[in-house]
Amino acid sequence: MAAGRDGYDVIVIGGGHAGTEAAAASARLGARTVLITPDLDRIGQMSCNPAIGGVAKGVVAREVDALGGVMGRATDASRIHFRMLNRSKGPAVWGPRAQCDRGLYPRAVRRVLDELEDLELVQEMVSGLIMDEGRPRGVVTRGGQVVAGRVVVVTAGTFLRGKIHVGGEAGVDAGRAGEAPSLELAEALEAQGLELARFKTGTPPRVDGRTVDFSRVEVQQSHPEDYRFSGYVDEELPDQTVCWITWTGRELRDLIQENLPRSALYGGALSGRGPRYCPSIEDKIVRFPDNPRHQVFLEPEGLHTRELYVNGLSTSLPLEVQEAFLRTVPGLEEARITRMGYAIEYDYFPPHQLRHTLEVRSIPGLFFAGQINGTTGYEEAAGQGIVAGINAGLKALDRDPFTLERDQAYLGVLVDDLVTRGVDEPYRLFTSRAEFRLLLRQDNAQERLGPLARELGLLTPRQADALQRRLDERSRVLAWIRDSVARPDEVNPRLEEVDSTPLREPVRWVELLRRPEVSVEALFRGGEAPFDPEGDVAAAVEVEIKYEGYVERERERAERLREKAGFKLPEELPYMEFETISYESREKLGRVRPSNLAQAGRIPGVSPADLQNLILEVRRWRRSRPADASQEKGEAAAKAEKAG
Amino acid sequence: MKADTIVARSTPPGRGALAVLRLSGPATRRVLEKVAPELSAPPPVRRPTLAHLVNPADGSTLDRGLVTFFPGPASYTGEDLAELSVHGGVLVSALVEEACRRAGARQAEPGEFTRRAYLNGKLDLVQAEAVADMVDAQNAALHRTAVHQMDGGLSNRLAELREALVELEALLVHQIDFPEEDDPPVPVATVLERAGAVEAHMEGLLATAPEGELLREGALAVLAGRPNTGKSSLYNALLGEERAIVTPTPGTTRDALEARVQMGGFPFRLVDTAGLRSQAGEVERMGIEVARRYLAGADVILLCLPVDMDWGEPEDSFVAEWAPQVPVVVVRSCADRVPSTDGGAEASAADEGASDVLGGAGDVPEGAGSVAGRVMASARSGQGLQELRTLLGRLVFSGLVKMDAEAPVLTRRRQREGVKDARGEVAAFRQALRDGVPAEAAVSHLRSAETALEELLGVISPEEILDQVFARFCIGK
Ligand SMILES: Cc1cc2nc3c(=O)[nH]c(=O)nc-3n(C[C@H](O)[C@H](O)[C@H](O)COP(=O)(O)OP(=O)(O)OC[C@H]3O[C@@H](n4cnc5c(N)ncnc54)[C@H](O)[C@@H]3O)c2cc1C
Ligand SMILES: Nc1nc2c(ncn2[C@@H]2O[C@H](COP(=O)(O)OP(=O)(O)OP(=O)(O)O)[C@@H](O)[C@H]2O)c(=O)[nH]1
Ligand SMILES: [Mg+2]
Q: Which residue, of A429, A456, A483, is where some domain finishes?
């Protein structure tokens, strides 16, 4: 008989960005949790570019933090270069992005996990699921261990039947360069009747920094501010360093065009679809042959290594071509490759098979998070990890599920997009996916999600205190700006600086901030503001005051969406019988089984007219089922409650 | 659950030489096997084939007709469909229809074929509306517009406008989502200009709405004038049938009469009213009240005055009251009472400047310079009626008359409201940019404008912005 482990509430498979967040969240809720991953030294490993954040992604990283997650703290503790993207635009679309030390990041993740009493780590490869009456009862490992637990979260990343390709060579089975793929687990899941598909992605070569001619590239400085992803815990920031920018030219284009047939991505050796926004250099040259140049960022892999990540030159061409094209790039003429760029293809589970809790619809107790749901990126993985982990813990503890709406968080947008719209290329977040861009900001992630985290029990007492201080600070600043008065002698010099009409009479600060040309920063920089003019609260104040009308518009739209979301669609609706709805929409509705009208409206191809008819059909259907009459009343009551 | 199979006569009832029946649904072939057993199985595709049509109950022949089979999804409804051309007349088609029902089809409800086409994604909402318009069309102009819209005329224009907005949004979104790319920012002036062009197109579409909606509803043309001026006679003459009572006694017409009629190729609701005068009995006064209400809603007014009566104070004050709001055409009626002149119509269309030339024996009315046109006409001889019809069409539908026949027209309130909302949002977007509102906020107006058009067309496709971004810009750090 195999060695057994039991007594767990939740089993998390995989120690990547999704797995670590899932395990941590579940443990913080008080569910006894075990994280199983093949190499404990690679927990939280960054498979690709060692950078966290960016536009939209940065907001996600802060949302994960606001829910008590790991990513924010690990990023603060390992970031060696920081930029606030979109700084020149309004604070509503600022995107914090950190370059991390590839070694420090996983270590920080491990340190945060080790703080958790209810979490155990086990180094093993999971090879099968133990099922009983269609529900998980535990997992078995390659090493022959049986681990019992009724709630299982799978976060196997790119490892499911992963295959990597360099050049035209036949692919090699691997989950990531140098790591074994997960074959048995893919089969075990497939045997449960789940639908699988394949995606691909690629990574660029890394080079030895000692062989780069830095006189020929442009330096990109780190922004100086003491920016924090974590609103709860002040980690110590490492020293900061610089990045560099260079450009490709015509020579590189010609080389790539000549060698296209040798590319695994292009030669057709890879069947799955790849992302359009993170294209290989092959892709860029084929699609935009007329662009004279493409940007290349040289990013340090860490403080204590000279290895550089060549961002922008993701490729699966053979080594000699990679070497040849690097030689055409200014600064990289003599560069030596330390690790080759390569492409990887892997299995994922089309996410329409999930509920908004990330539980597999057909297998209660089984949750999926991360790249296996067809997404790409650390932040997207972490975000799903925390949603799945919270719900796994809640389920194990017999508590109500937790979901986020699209107007509450990018995490809500992410999960809802996956579940209701599905994916046809590796999914990444953009601000354009969020219809409530002005509400979902990096500066207010903690105000939005912190109170929910506190209620769920995801915060330690110290974190809950930190949250309260921030909430108080925010109200204090807002009240101060709305109520206190600026004197002409005090502000006129600053108003003149930005060409704004000087004051003759004292006015309230809020009036000044309504002027388009006057920013919080311009008004308070260097002055005696009773708050940090570069901090989150200042950014929040600026958006909420300056774009009050627009923020209000979004709130109203969110309200309308909530009304639609209040119209529930029972799981068992016989969609195929709803003859007033187009056939295509009936099929889609039947497949996705949205839980409310708002979700139904977001399924591609379901038209507004279909929605109108759906309302009528559902009402008719309910009337035809006397047992269900109570539900309609419930709906009416919910409405009345809202109105009241 | 599968849809059932439906049958209905698709040509209007009447005594045409041919009648066409349509069958649609999954059992179409089975019905054909029973009703047209001579046909090969499966039946020839999209090729009219002659066959005996029989009663499946006893095999008796009902008719010999042409059967054309269209397999789904490449058919009008998207399902298997057959068209049966049979001999005209009510009886034959009713018998064949009955035979199809016996063979398993069900009588179609009104509009059901089109509804199926819409449900199967063969038509969008605007096209489906156009089909309804076409079926209802009692006038040449609406029919022409409907045919064009069914081909996607209006849908295409709306889709183009939406596409232009999506492109514009993509330009702005690209700069927000990919700040590190080295494409230069798009100048605000360019964005403003492109948004302005979209707004102008929407303006153009909206300008067609008043007349377009009249195409469906019929323009209200009201006959007015003193008692006994030949209004009812003209009403009957324009309708081509004796609808109103005509007597030599003033005050004959008491209540308003309304009828649909096509004039100059355009649809009208022609109204005869009680003659207007100050000393009138109770009933007549109520009739005058009704007349005034019609006048207030009129699209054009026909002021009647027999050629042998003098233009007087009542006409002066009538013109002074109504002409500022609605085109008033002076009809010098009973033209046959004076020796024939060249008669005919004079239009003083707004853009040509008012013309005061009145042909023939008419006196030149004082203070009537603001009337939209004058016609000498006779209900008795028919003189001038055709000119009057043409003039009315040109006055009310002046925009459509000038427009290219292919140009899209808004014919429904729903369409007008949708385009109006969209136009308002585009205008707000431009204003916001001019006021220095940053793109990430202002773009919400573009979204709303897109939504308004999407709701009109009945499509939503949220991925499109990103598709645009990726198609235009080389993204990828
Ligand atoms: C070559 C490559 C290129 C990439 N390029 C980009 C890019 O350009 N842009 C971008 O945004 N993202 C890119 N990524 C994606 C990014 O790395 C992932 O999105 C992110 O790491 C996904 O996180 P995850 O937790 O879902 O999975 P991973 O980080 O892959 O973690 C999966 C974990 O599961 C473990 N595991 C797998 N199978 C088992 C098993 N049977 N039992 C136990 N443990 C198991 C693994 O050991 C690993 O620890 C790339 C990834 C790769 C590999
Ligand atoms: N010669 C001639 N007589 C006409 C013509 N039209 C109308 N009449 C006569 O004019 C008289 C009045 O005609 P109606 O059509 O009843 O006039 P009306 O304006 O409707 O009258 P009320 O309803 O009483 O206001 C009748 O005797 C008609 O026969 C015409 O074109 N030529
Ligand atoms: Mg009369």
A: A456
pLDDT of residue A503: 92
Q: Is residue A299 part of a domain?
A: yes
Number of CB pairs, chain A paired with chain B, less than 8 A apart: 122
- Residues A28 and A154 reside in one and the same domain: yes
- The domain made up of B6-124 has a fold known as Gyrase A; domain 2 (3.30.1360)
Instruction: Quote the tokens at residue B279.
Output: 């000393």
User: Is there a contact between B375 and B329 (Cβ–Cβ < 8 Å)?
Assistant: yes
On whether the CB atoms of residues A35 and A23 are closer than 8 A, the answer is yes
**Which CATH number characterizes residue A589's domain?**
1.10.150.570
Strand ranges across the sheet with B328-333: B257-263, B266-272, B219-225, B300-306, B328-333, B373-376, B344-347
Same domain, A273 and A422: no
In chain B, domain spans: 6-124, 146-208+410-458, 217-402
Are the beta carbons of A609 and A541 closer than 8 angstroms?
Answer: no
Q: Is the pLDDT of residue A400 over 80?
A: yes
ipTM beyond cut 0.85: no
Round to whole Å and give the CA distance between B188 and A598: 34
B146-208+410-458: in CATH 3.40.50.80: no
- B296 HSE (CA, 13 A, CB side): 6
Query: Residue B339: is the preceding peptide bond cis (ω within 30°)?
Result: no
Q: Which residues in chain B land under pLDDT 50?
A: 1, 343-344, 346-362, 364, 366-367, 475-477
Structure confidence at residue A642 (pLDDT): 44
- Tokens representing B343 are 């008669």
The conformational region for residue B59 under phi > 0 = left, psi -120 to 50 = alpha, else beta, is: left
Q: Separation of B247 CA from ligand 3 center, angstroms?
A: 8
Ligand 2 neighbour B175 (Cβ under 6 A): no
Residues A369 and A327 in one domain: no
Rounded alpha-carbon distances, angstroms, from residue B382 to B246, B262, B336, B341, B378 = 16, 17, 9, 14, 5
What CATH number does the domain containing A235 carry? 2.40.30.260
Question: A428 in contact with B at a CB cutoff of 8 Å?
Answer: no
CATH of the domain at A129: 3.50.50.60
* Dist CA B467 CA A544 (whole Å): 31
* Pick from B3, B150, B24, B12: nearest CA to B84: B24
Four-point Cα dihedral A338, A344, A349, A350, nearest 10: 110
DSSP B313-346: HHHHHHHHHHTTTS-EEEEEE-GGGS---S-EEE
Ligand 2 atom index nearest CA of B248:
27
Tens digits of residue pLDDT in B169-207: 988 888 888 887 767 778 889 999 999 999 999 999 999
Q: Which fold has domain B217-402?
A: Rossmann fold (3.40.50)
Q: Which residues of B touch A (CB under 8 A)?
A: 1, 3, 118-121, 125, 169, 173, 175-182, 435-441, 444, 447, 454-455, 458-463, 465-466, 469-470, 474-477
Tell me if A164 sits within 8 A of A270, measured CB to CB. no
Mean of pLDDT over chain A: 89
Nearest residue to A409 (alpha-carbon basis) of A462, A363, A447: A447
Domain that holds residue A243: 206-342
Is the CB of residue A72 less than 8 Å from the CB of residue A17?
no
**B189, two tokens:** 């002036």
Q: CB under 8 Å to A333, separation ≥6 — which residues?
A: A213, A216, A327
B232 ligand 2 Cβ < 6 A: yes
Query: Tokens standing for A527?
Result: 């002055």
> Which residue type sits at A461?
P
Q: pTM of the predicted model, to two decimals?
A: 0.81
- As a whole number of angstroms, the distance between CA A326 and CA A335 comes to 7
